[in-house]
Amino acid sequence: MPESKSPLKVGFIGLSSRGWASDVLAPALTQPSLRDKYDLVAVSTTSEASAQASAQKYSQVVGHPVKAYHGSSSSIASDPEIDVIGVSVRVTHHKEVVLPVIEAKKDFWLEWPAGRNTLETKAIAQAARKNGVRSIIGFQSRYSAALQKVKELLASGVIGTVRSSHVVAHIGKELGIWPPVLREASEYGMLPLEKKNGKSPFTPILRALFKLPPRSTHADPQFDFIRIDPSSFGTFVDADGKPTGKTLEVNIPDHFAITGFLKSGALVNLFWRDGYSSGPETGRRQFVWEIDGEDGTIRMEGNGLYGAFPGSQEPDLFLNGKKVEFQAGNPFLSVTAAWQEFAKGKTGDYPTIDDAVKHHELLDAIELSAKEGRRIIL
């Protein structure tokens, strides 16, 4: 469909008083620069009270009444006024919430990983194709200002043919989102630590690599996915850093290395680790991504606490060792860019549910490679 000349009517599921949707997704959607493209007309939460509170809040933001729905997603999905529905709920509920939206033939926004596993994501994709609806998946890191600048540099040919690339990334224990210490306030953020919930620690980097699908992947058995921390539990602490007595079992790795090839034949290597101290006194690098071409090198480096998440904290950018200046972005601007692209219709550059399926298949291949110690060709 071409870019809409009138605002698309939007409903939002999971838009409560706090969380990612309230802090970033909805504010980006309702800012003045997008008012000619989108109009928030309805919200839906789990309870009537929270739905009414959210509707009242956003009625003031957009300057007109916003309808309140609660309970099953089929209620808001059946609203004939709505064109697009945003879904930002726990990963464990992605499929059950978004399928009624799709069956009502509504276009949708769904946060990654768009289902707990490949089977769920494929079911969502199949339903979307069957009902002829458009989708956009929340891979906001691809709209990072630094990554956009890198794409520009690569397109210019300034470093020549790309031959290899490597990423080194780390999540520091100070963030409290990885063992051995977990902030109780981030308990939902701990869901990735339980494999059944569908996420893994390396999906942020795969988001950044979204436009560069590998031809094959290989995880050397010597660098298998392993737990360096001998404990299989993380300990929750309160806002003051005091243990609450609650623990969470962790069953996915805290260290891994991945090697693969892009379609161009360029070699890609990724090393990820979690849970060490991140203070400046350690000298530990949080994020380094180098892209080596025949005629030069592009390097991104971020040493802040959120350095491993380019879409959340912009890295410094260097071309052949010299710093490149650019207008730094943030998660809010990245989401705004995503909404802008979706509004363009078929000409927009945005990830779809079919792209999410490809990413799940990539993650499955990486896991199988590590388990069986062999190269997997995709």
From TrEMBL:
Pfam families: Gal80p_C-like, GFO_IDH_MocA
Keywords associated with the record: Oxidoreductase
Gene3D superfamilies: Dihydrodipicolinate Reductase, domain 2, NAD(P)-binding Rossmann-like Domain
Domain (Gfo/Idh/MocA-like oxidoreductase N-terminal) ranges: 9-138
Annotated ranges, domain Gal80p-like C-terminal: 236-302
InterPro entries: Gal80p-like_C, Gfo/Idh/MocA-like_OxRdtase_N, Gfo/Idh/MocA_oxidrdct_glycsds, NAD(P)-bd_dom_sf
Full protein name: Gfo/Idh/MocA-like oxidoreductase N-terminal domain-containing protein
Domain of life: Eukaryota
UniProt keyword annotation of Cell division present: no
Source organism (scientific name): Agrocybe pediades
GO molecular function: nucleotide binding; oxidoreductase activity
